[in-house]
Automatic annotation (TrEMBL), chains A, B, C, D:
Coiled coil: none annotated. Pfam families: AdoHcyase (PF05221), AdoHcyase_NAD (PF00670). Substrate binds at residues 77, 151, 176, 206, 210. This is S-adenosylhomocysteine hydrolase-like protein 1. One of its GO terms (biological process) is S-adenosylmethionine cycle.
Length: 456, 456, 456, 456
């Protein structure tokens, strides 16, 4: 099928006029005819997202998001579709656009459109397409967003730059990524952030569940689907031992890889040691690595000098939040030949014939797998405006049913002994930032652990 | 793309006349034009099969398989292609056919044909196509096989039935699967096995590396690609704790699943206990399982009664050697609705709306991932006719370079102390059958641990 | 040897007059003659405590603790001895007493006394002995403490009650345990905490290294030394999935036990699920448990009703911070017979002959193993008064040498990109409380992450 | 207490006349008065040995070992005591002696004597004591053994040398260790083995359960009890990746150690790779190791040259079957100082002050922990004379109750499909030698998988 994809030389979606079965034409996607298949994908995803489905049931009658006009810019996957349709079920109006030119699942986009939500996105957009889609998502006849749900900050940036007048209506920005939070923080420092912003990334649920547990699974999945590599016995170098790095290392070790870690932070380095990983400098192990995975959130972690010293066949990929970790610029030089061997897989060929296998052109490897639970959080705040700590515990409890887990309950006596309420919150107020590995800083205008409904 | 596959209503490959670039027309595959893409897949696979590539280098000049005319019936994957082309490099002439109607990688088949080897196989053959292909692989103008490489016994069966006269030329049968070995054994008991047969399945390398280690990786990969399921916290029931079951359990446990085991054999059951798995009867845990995986080699392990009691959304699949483990017949009844949601994924819908997710229609889940190293073994015997134990050690040593592993060497004194040669074999003669979980029995006519070149 | 211990019917240390080799008589321990043996134990411990040894080297000349008069009340083990002697090396004068009537290593106490530090402690003190020793440690001719290092709050309590006049000289209290912190917090709420107090328990190093990693090792060690139990295949119930519970579960699972978890907190419960543990109520699994381990920090978690339903031979022990988790009072009834089978091991025998194996009478199982790294922290602040976050990172970096770990360094450019200094701190200011599972609350008078030298 | 042991300068047990409570004086042990304490230890051990206790119940009436006169030479531990007393319960008469001068548990020996079985053993025998005890165990008034149960071959050797006339009465030798089996094999090759000998070491149960699973637990226990070392982050070198090495590596890795493996056998080396361990030569990693553990069964694996290059504080111990793996002779030179710091722990001090920590003087580290299940096997054959394969499965099934494991049963149809009986044996006849890593060879006179009752 891959060859089919490659040979598809179709016209751009921007040149096509399509309508969904109810006549809606306000969207731009690959092919509305794929909606049925996309719907099945969404149904599969729903089985894995009980908390959102639960929320729909509990909150549908109240329509707590009634009046919300959400413009969203995220990866467009089956999981996102479940989020979007939950927002709609809760009363919101939505328009959506992709935050990444490659990650859109075309059939899913079709299903969302068929369900009535305008989407502007397809797999394989050009840079120009990307901004055109963002622009289209913001501008609609007789519709102006009052809520932004962003992943990476591009949508927010566009609105600040092109539609500053819209900002006064915006009642909140929910930002997903470290990069986006950092951009907000700089706006804030410059005194330009006039809108309440919520940092999803620092939430407990995001840190603990999305990063650690999702990455544990998605690193294996991402590598297998792209390269079919066997993990057993391979030497893997993981750069960074925050939650993402911990998840990657744990999974790879479990499947028999020999894992090395690089770190700049002594606490994380010591954790890596205690977890059984050798902590070394990149230059010390680069020659022997079969795979190199970046998870630092930093830039230029793997540079040309390292790539020059890697052995033939070494796989290089990025699980961090930005696409800056691998110095790609240094690889676009005349002596190196690029050969695309599969979708998302490039061989970069050195003059002596050495091949480095670069995945997703250095973009985030786990596009489809690790974006879900953080969204869950945003939603949750919907029904929990007041006590934010409690929100986290509520999200967690919504998921326990999936695992048929049975919580114990404190007796009156025990609750008194601990000095807390029988029904929680069980964590102290400063727990919020637990275990975070990021370097972002809170600010009066950036609230964490909150969600859409804090703005309504 | 999946919808593209589904909508492809093309004519049968049997109706098409194709030629490769050198004019060869003696083959039947989906589309010779995909050869370039298939070649890239084969090149990727070669990176993971250093032992075969090594053998090519070492043995190319000697052409030890010169004179061998091999007809092969296996899964047709990039890995098989590396095997076939190694056989050719060693001097053999080959014709190939698929042992499974679904597992053929069309582009790989095209690349092999472009390389000059007749292949008769495509993804999605009908039952009639299947036997037609087998027939075509055996019959060629002025070419008669003297060697069979079979996986499952269908090719051998066909030759016995349709071309008994060919048998006198056959100098050896290499059989891969337990099922095929069992069929050979029955032939042998009936006095009808007049050809030396080699049982690859019982070899140390097959048991230890192919089954245990490959399944450890392929169970995760197979489940993820088909269902995107998250493993963490899921309750999984694994039927059978032989090498395949051990591999599955180990991987699932490592990724945070709660794993239960069923077993009939007390030794395997005790191993499961000591490895940290609860050993229970199927009926005791069936209601709580999120996934059920069969690895017994037995039949009707999961029957309608169990399927009726599974919970909504339960995933059912088979990693065992046969496709008999799940009683599929019982699911083809009028009250149950089947819905194909993705390739290889069916939802079976009960009257009350409950959905069971059946993968690969109960066939082997890990078609593409676990077939490699056993082939490696067959080849190895090529260069090692005499001492079979040694062969296993030789195969192992060929792979050590991949892992940059450095073997220690015995001193003269130490070798003397142990009473063995400095260069091995290191295992006693009875090691052959180590750890096997199968129920097949040796016979004077079925030699194990051997390969093609034992016949030359 | 155990029988030797039992048969020792010696006079009380309080009745003996002993002197060390320099004539010092101001101490009360079991037997000063064991000093040589204790010295060897301390030397062994020093090898495992490189950070403290390092500090001695670095800070010896400066004597930063010069003027400090420390009275300490902790477990008296070889590790504590390394701490005490480091304090002395840094310039402090110390007197020491045990915080637990059973945990004193007599030979170690002798070695410390021989080294010149007055110690008042022996294994097997009575309740009366315990308070007598505390009193003796506080009161000395011409010596008044200006610093308290406490574990559990008994020493602090005694000073508040008996020697309130001393408080005005006290420049700081370092408290180790949750219980002690809670008592300080209540003093503080009542407006009676007139001394700066430092909560070691909430520090990152304590939470991450002492609790998680130490418990991972000490749970196995504690169970083996007392019962020789085999872990493989055993069903173990762990109550509480904070850091201590996580460490216990991880170790037991790794050695093949089937582990169940009870939790009241949904976030911790969800983590347990994702880590592969069934979360159930105590009453659901109590009948099948081979071992029950409490790690909640709560009281009456395991009560008579549970104990009545346990199976014969079930092992019950406590890894939590208090000794209240198992309802011991309910076991001291006439129908139950207690039989001491080894030191720290009691069989409690039901009328029908059922035996429950109770370890350490419900006190903390890992007395000797898990108390070290938290002390390391206290010391560290010695050299780092200013920036507390940094202290944690400094402690971590001191330990990296042990593991021959090589930290990477940020380039100027990377540091700028992250908005942090090249040399750290790498964690945001709110990181302090990471991952804590405790229910204590900060207060203006209780500073965390600090150590002795903050007071000088 | 350790100092108490050291200071005990008592008279030799050989000089003492003792009697048990029934007047028996035919024994020589440390102190009969310790019997009560030893009895409690045996009761604790019984809880962990359900199969033997089960056998007592099932077979007691039949007295299948009636007429057997067993002289045994093994480690004398609580577990051995359970074995001995089971033999007696089954009708045998026994006399026992220690196979190791250090491993005897004195109180257990006392309890066994109090129970009526003559024992000649104590902890800390001299070489002369050792042979004197063996001699005493063989020679008794009006009692001549007809059965030998040996571990290491010393008893057998003594009888061959001193009492050849006894041999004609001996109906069987059960040998436990590789070393002993090798000695028997050499006797056999020389035509001097006139007695049926049973090799317990090669049995499935011994290999799989005793070696792999027991070592997984005992390596941790052995290291902790002697050195209190923390495993997390430590670099450990394991020499040999047979079942013992696999168990050690698995446990150490699970607790966070970085493990390296040396191997001579490519199959084992490849397994180590696939399990995630770097396979290197000893000389490549010796400088960085914190611990070195030998598990090869070979001699002079760690020699002076390696010891010279180890770093300060490196722990060296042996888990293999012989005490030859570490070249101890090379350490008894004048420039090295030995210092005993604890029982079983010597510091060997180099002229520059470097200390190497040698455990158990290079003898087997896990004396008390890993000797049990192999004995279980010997006993089992008691009730299963005919089919040896079945015996293994029977032993396994006896243990399943401990784990509350529920075996599935084959239907008639399934049994027929597999071609086996519904009740087993489930393994093919050649399964016997599964997974063995030893280098011993079978011989017409050495039967494996058999036990005492095969001789009656």
């Amino acid at each position: 099928w891959a060859s089919l994809i490659f040979s598809e030389e179709e016209s751009s979606p921007r040149d096509k006029l399509q309508r969904n079965s109810k006549g809606l034409a306000d969207f731009c996607i690959k092919n509305i005819d794929q909606a049925d298949f996309g719907r099945r994908e969404i149904e599969v995803a729903q089985q894995e997202m009980p908390a959102l489905m639960n929320l729909r049931k509990r909150a549908e009658e109240e329509k707590p998001l009634s009046g919300a006009k959400v413009v969203g810019c995220t990866h467009i996957t089956a999981q996102t579709a479940v989020l979007i349709e939950t927002l709609v079920a809760l009363g919101a109006q939505c328009r959506w656009v992709a935050c990444n030119i490659f990650s859109t699942q075309n059939a899913v986009a079709a299903a969302v459109v068929e369900g009535g939500v305008p989407v502007f996105a397809w797999k394989g957009e050009s840079e120009d397409d990307f901004w055109w889609c963002i622009d289209r998502s913001v501008c609609a006849d007789a519709w102006q967003p009052n809520m932004i749900l962003d992943d990476g900050g591009d949508l927010t940036h566009w609105i600040y730059k092109k539609y500053p007048s819209l900002l006064k209506r915006i009642r909140g920005i929910v930002e997903e990524s470290v990069t986006g939070v950092f951009r907000l923080y700089q706006l804030s420092k410059a005194g330009k952030l006039c809108v309440p912003a919520m940092n999803v990334n620092d939430s407990v649920t995001k840190q603990k569940f999305d990063n650690l547990y999702c990455c544990r699974e998605s690193i294996l999945d991402g590598l297998k689907r792209t390269t079919d590599v066997m993990f057993g016995g391979k030497q893997v170098l993981v750069c960074g031992y925050g939650e993402v790095g911990k998840g990657c290392c744990s999974a790879l070790k479990a499947l028999g890889a020999v894992v090395y870690v690089t770190e700049v932070d002594p606490i994380c380095a010591l954790q890596a040691c205690m977890d059984g990983f050798r902590v070394l400098k990149l230059s010390e192990v680069i020659r022997q690595a079969d795979m190199v995975i970046t998870c630092t959130g930093n830039k230029n972690v793997v540079v040309r000098e390292h790539l020059d010293r890697m052995k033939n066949g070494c796989i290089v990929c990025n699980m961090g939040h930005s696409n800056t970790e691998i110095d790609l610029v240094s690889l676009h030089t005349s002596e190196l030949k690029w050969e695309r061997v599969r979708p998302q897989v490039d061989h970069i060929i050195w003059p002596d014939g050495k091949r480095i296998v670069l995945l997703a052109e250095g973009r985030l490897l786990n596009l489809s797998c690790s974006t879900v639970p953080s969204f869950v959080l945003s939603i949750t705040a919907t029904t929990q405006v007041g006590e934010r700590r409690w929100a986290n515990e509520y999200v967690a409890s919504l998921h326990l049913a999936t695992f048929d887990a049975h919580l114990s309950e404190l007796s009156d006596d025990q609750a008194k002994y601990l000095g807390i309420s029988k029904n929680g919150p069980f964590k102290p107020s400063y727990y919020r930032s637990a275990n975070t590995h990021t370097h972002t800083h809170t600010h009066t205008h950036t609230h964490t652990n909150a969600g859409l409904s804090n703005c309504f």
